[in-house]
Amino acid sequence: MFAYLDNAATTRVWPQAAQAAQAEMTAGFGNPSARYAFGQEAARRLQGYRETVARALGCLPEEVYFTSCGTEGDNWAIRAGAEQGRRRGKHIITTAIEHAAVLESLKALEAQGWTVTRLKPDRRGHVHPEDLSAALREDTALVSIMLVNNELGSLQPVAECARLTKAFSRDILFHTDAVQAFGKVPFTPEGMGVDLLTVSGHKIGAPKGIGVQYIRKGLRMPPFLLGGGQEGGLRSGTEPTAQIAALAAACAIWEERGRDFRDHMAQLKAIALRELQARVPGLEVIAGGDAPHICAVSLPGYPSEMLVRALSDRGVCVSSGSACHKGKPSHVFAALGLPKRTLMGALRISFSPESTEADVEALVEGLAAIQRDRVGA
Predict the structure, then answer these.
(1) In whole angstroms, what is the distance from residue 82 CA to residue 76 CA?
(2) What pLDDT digit, counting tens, does each position of 149-158 carry?
């Protein structure tokens, strides 16, 4: 057994989700676009899954568009949002701590002549609405601000930022990457006032390879994939009904037990931060995290990649930042203006409803042992 504390990277698939996927792959494998009865039965189930996901998101079924992942959703939102809004101008506002899927999409647009303003966070990883207000321009076409940062757990004031944006101009589109927020932080797209919202299934116990793009009803977006006209003609391709069924099953679990899950993760995180500070001398808390499942710490003077490997040798899984960095320094931690020693020793710890106090103890004892080994060497 091992202590898995990298749930912001991915989560174990719920058994109920795996069973739902298997049923679709074996007994109910029909193509939802087929006109015969077997295919139409699949189409009816697909609509039921869409309604379940929409209920969990707090939106209309017709506002749910299935994608392959959060990265696809972010790419779709940025590219299509820019195309849709280019009549206003070619200026986009985002933050310096967005996921790479947003930042890399924006770099591609900059190469095509767009201007991008990246709002900097404060020391705790929060972006301030007044900074957004100051950055809004007459040629601003799109704003993209994530709801929960994937490395800090910091909750961004998306609702207030969307309100300020729409007060400046109703024509500016607003997107939020809610991949780390879905299930962990209560919200609805309409309640926040956003036009576009991205989530990913494998962060909540669904398999990798399925996500959702929320598109506000009435918003006419350019298609992302052309073909047979699935997903309202905006994202063509035969629907991955097995993954969608699994996502619906995971959503139903979180809808029923989400409050208990959030309380459990928040309690474990509090225990972890308390014990780490008490038993690992010199450890610094970079971010306690507003969301219940993510926090970031540092052991200055110990390279984070060494810590990750040494903890792995002890059966403990944590990360030095987003899995998408693949060992590269985190732009999120760097954006906080941390001292170099703190930055180099940064670790992200993330919990799931299945995390235990034994996992926390393994982490704390692992870091303490690594420190003792170095001191005694």
Answers:
(1) 10
(2) 999 999 999 9
Bridge-based pairing state of the strands 140-144 and 294-298: unpaired
> Residue 323: what pLDDT?
46
d(CA 94, CA 77): 13
Q: What is the pLDDT of residues 190-238, one digit of tens each?
A: 999 999 999 999 999 999 999 999 999 999 899 999 999 999 999 999 9
CATH 3.30.70.1140 fits 3-11+257-369, yes or no: no
Strands (E), 194-240: 196-200, 211-215
Please give the CATH topology (third level) of the domain spanning 15-253. Aspartate Aminotransferase; domain 2 (3.40.640)
The DSSP 8-state label assigned to residue 217 in this structure reads T
Q: C-alpha angle 53/57/60, rounded to 5°?
A: 75
Question: Whose structure tokens read 């809610």?
Answer: 178
User: Are β-strands 173-177 and 140-144 bridged in parallel, bridged antiparallel, or unpaired?
Assistant: parallel
Model confidence at 374, in pLDDT bands (50, 70, 90)? confident
| 346-358: average pLDDT | 97
Q: Which of 210, 207, 246, 249 is nearest to 231 (CA)?
A: 210
pLDDT band, residue 360 (cuts 50/70/90) = very high
- DSSP label of 155: B
Using DSSP, state whether 317 is helix, strand or coil.
strand
Domain map (residue ranges) of the chain: 3-11+257-369, 15-253
Q: Taking the CA of residue 106 as centre, how many other CA atoms within 13 Å lie in the half-sphere pointing to its CB? A: 23
Active site residue ranges: 324
- Alpha carbon of 63 to those of 87, 161, 225, 303: distances in Å? 24, 22, 17, 45
Find the mean pLDDT for residues 46-55. Answer: 98
Longest dimension (CA), the chain: 72
Please report how the helices 357-376 and 304-313 are oriented relative to each other, as an axis angle in degrees rounded to 10: 110
Alpha-helical segments (H) within 86-231: 100-110, 129-135, 158-168, 189-192
